[in-house]
Amino acid sequence: MGRAGTSIVRRSRPRTASRVNKSISLPLAQGGFREGGVTQEQPETSSQTIVADYARLLNTPVAAPDIDAPPFSTDLPKRDAGKKCALLLSAHPDDECLTGVLPLRLLREQNWQIINIALTLGSNSSRRMERKKEVEKACAVLGFAGALPEENGFSDINPAARNADADAWNKKVKRLSEIIAHFRPQVIVMPHANDGHATHVGTYLLGMDALALMPQDFTCTVALTEYWQQIADPNTMIAVKEDDLATLMSALACHAGENARNAYDRRFPALLIDTVRRGEILAGQGKAAPAITFGQMVKLGTWLKGRFVPSALNRVVGTSTTDSISALFA
Prior knowledge:
Distance between the termini: 32 Å
CATH architecture: 3-Layer(aba) Sandwich
Structural class: alpha/beta
CATH superfamily: LmbE-like
CATH topology: Rossmann fold
């Protein structure tokens, strides 16, 4: 894999002293999927070396930044009237990183205000204070503001709880609708309906239920994200710049407790590489994948007149100067 804007195929075969290294460059993707940059030749490397490098990197700890972070509370940050706003509904601490590609690009490229609502602090009550500190640090690394919907976050955000206790669920819905009304964001980011984890699915249901309580004239873009299970019908791939990915990994490294049981931070680049493979879903089967290195898939739509209306367009937003993230919301 070459750097952003390139697509390289390397073939491994026995080397001889007289053979000259060559590399084969595939054409950049067509139909608007081309990312800025120049295809560069790379020396061939054996498959054994590449696999060993992957394994080495997977087992190399990511340095966690030493950073002071403002504490999260139920007091909501002030809405900056001079900026557009994106509201990130995170099922768990660390989801602000794992699904944070779009918010981070909006912050860095368009100077949006980004608010992470940590809906829960995880299911392990003994670790909630630790996880609160971790998400505070992660958001400080990312440049996101943050808040809790209630002290210690919500509990029982899942479909079973929604069905079992309507009164308790509706109180949570009302609180989230108040948060949405406070920020009146242009974009709300949340997991998709079948994201493969009960709390992620519950976050989707909570978000949609809260939106349904908003006035009929309220409208915003909704970006549905994926992590535990892929979106069956995504419509947008967002390229990830290397600097942005490095920041997301540094923020993920703040979640030391979770990374100790599963290397979420070190596995993240591989996930984004694999996502680019699925670019054929957008371009059409048999078409070239987008000419980007790292990407995150979302399903964009509009909350309009009390319902979610998916976008009919399939789009890839690269990282070149001609690929403005703001074009998604024009």
